[in-house]
Every structure is written in C-alpha cells, then in structure tokens.
Amino acid sequence: MANSALLVMDVQRDIVDIADDGSGYLPRLRRAIDGARAAGLPVIYVTIGLRPGNPEVSTRNRVLTAAVEGGLFTEGAPGTGIHPAVAPHQDDILVTKRRGSAFSGSDLDLVLRARDINALVLTGIATSGVVLYTLCQANDLDFALTVLPDACLDTDPEVHRLLTERLFPQWAAVLPTDTWLKTLSR
C-alpha cells in the first residue's frame, strides 16, 4: 500500500473569508483531517506566505500581483494564518510556499521524500488554484493522487465542478470525503 499524506492547502483566514460560501466546507475538511490523523496519516498544511516587500513577486505574475495589492499573503500577517477551525496539531507538518503549487518555492518535496511518501490526498482552496497546480506537478512527479472534491473549494462553483468531474479524474481518484474515510478503515 502507498505511503500517503493529506495535504491541507491554503486554508488561511483571508482565503477562507473570500471563498467560503457557508456550505459547510470547514466541517467537511475537519472530518478529513481528523480521519487522516486517526488512520496515522501525516497531515501537511501548506500555506502561501510572501516576505514583506514581496521580493518574490514579479509584476508579470498577474494573480500574485493582484493578491499583494489586495494586502494578501504577507508572512506573519493575521490573515495569512491557518483558519482556526482546522488548526494544525503539534505533530502536523507546516510548509510555506511562494507560488500556486504546493511544491513551488517550498520544501514539500524534501519533506515527502524524507518520509517516503508516494501518495497524496489533496484538499484546499482554491480548486482552480493550489489544488489544480499541485495536482499537475504531483502527477508529473509520479505521486499516486486522490482529490477530495468536497474538501476543496473555489469561488466559482462551475469551475470547481468542471475540474473535479472532468479534468481531475484523468490523473487522480476523486472521492467524496466520507467515501475516502471508509477506505482508511479497511
């Protein structure tokens, strides 16, 4: 069986405030996190954090430029912290990235190799951002992949649906959280 880890990506205060539509996203994500911990899977929190002054942001990067102009993602700022409803435990791993993918500008690959992890379960905000970018890169790196679509969120529900129903199944198992949790108990 593959050595798996649950990635909880970009579930930061400011991002949740922008994206959460009141649909019960955080409790669903919390169930996935609790289930992973109960099954002994590592839980890895990935956040985007940019240094004060944003030296790593090029004006050619439209998404990051717009985000920093809106005051998002500065390391140490309260809104950049992980949302308290899904706060990490002491044994969880925290990774800071500098771009869209969980691998970009982070030490995630090093952490995964050190733990011999070869399968990833992806969750987070936004489906069309960090989840998509990480899925593409992890696929290229030959990880076995699972996406929990109800533990992912996007500001555009139609884009979320298209990605989780049409694109992601080409590269990953796409399972509702409750179905995935049942596979952990087998």
Automatic annotation (TrEMBL):
<dbReference type="InterPro" id="IPR036380">
    <property type="entry name" value="Isochorismatase-like_sf"/>
</dbReference>
<dbReference type="Pfam" id="PF00857">
    <property type="entry name" value="Isochorismatase"/>
</dbReference>
<keyword id="KW-0378">Hydrolase</keyword>
<feature type="domain" description="Isochorismatase-like">
    <location>
        <begin position="4"/>
        <end position="178"/>
    </location>
</feature>
<protein>
    <submittedName>
        <fullName>Cysteine hydrolase</fullName>
    </submittedName>
</protein>
<dbReference type="InterPro" id="IPR000868">
    <property type="entry name" value="Isochorismatase-like_dom"/>
</dbReference>
<dbReference type="GO" id="GO:0016787">
    <property type="term" value="F:hydrolase activity"/>
</dbReference>
<dbReference type="InterPro" id="IPR050272">
    <property type="entry name" value="Isochorismatase-like_hydrls"/>
</dbReference>
